[in-house]
């Protein structure tokens, strides 16, 4: 009898220190009453944790600074930059470092509901034995609810409400202003030479489509990574109104390689470099940064219709989501449109 009394007390104490949550797909999981350590199964989820509370992150999916993300201490919490690289469950390469993840002991893993890899991720993530919370974050209109529900789950309700409200307001404004407006035909230039791109329904171009763009490359995605290969003849056949360059190498190549000289977008100087400070505004990864990304894109595609004070919007976004105040000069560097 004496043995059962302390056991019951212990079990009661454990239950009082835990809570049961339900994710978007009605899966019920148990977490500590106060969630203090969280890991994202992929960059979209890890960056979402950063926006809500960087101190709750336990690791990164890849090196903070890379060709697609100019992660610099000017704009980021030093704690983020010091985190170990744990990897990602969504990788087609080396994937997750399960040993490092086990050492970090997260209270919860946020799982990105990536349609193309969901079965693989679910199978792999079971090995970690940590509770998971699945978040749809593919479509732009998923973002406000995803922010709020995730924030509630990791005990960041107040901040989650602020970010969610801002995101919803931006989304609603763009939808309203662009209603009935003719789409702008764009090409998304990726790879080293600009001749890799994405299919029109790919989540990699979700932000561009939402902001009033029409992808000229109609296809069915052929692999998990995207980056569909085309040739210069196909690009001339498309002859897009606007080209969005995914990285600086491509951006410079479009202007300096004579192969592209006769494209209307190049001749009309309607080639734009995707901002990537401190995280990419559009893609790779498609994170919360897409909220400022769609404002930039809508202004780029339809400057006469979505004629906002872009500098003010950027300052407001960085102050709220990244908790840094930036200057007009910094914005000029971030946009980097004239650095050919």
From TrEMBL:
Keyword Cell cycle set for record: no
Domain (Fe/B12 periplasmic-binding): residue spans on this chain: 37-305
Pfam family, one: Peripla_BP_2
UniProt-listed InterPro entries: ABC_Transporter_SBP (IPR050902), ABC_transptr_periplasmic_BD (IPR002491)
Keywords associated with the record: Signal
Stretch forming the signal peptide: 1-18
BP GO terms, sorted: cellular response to iron ion
SUPFAM superfamilies: Helical backbone' metal receptor
Protein name according to UniProt: Fe/B12 periplasmic-binding domain-containing protein
Species the sequence originates in: Sulfurimonas marina
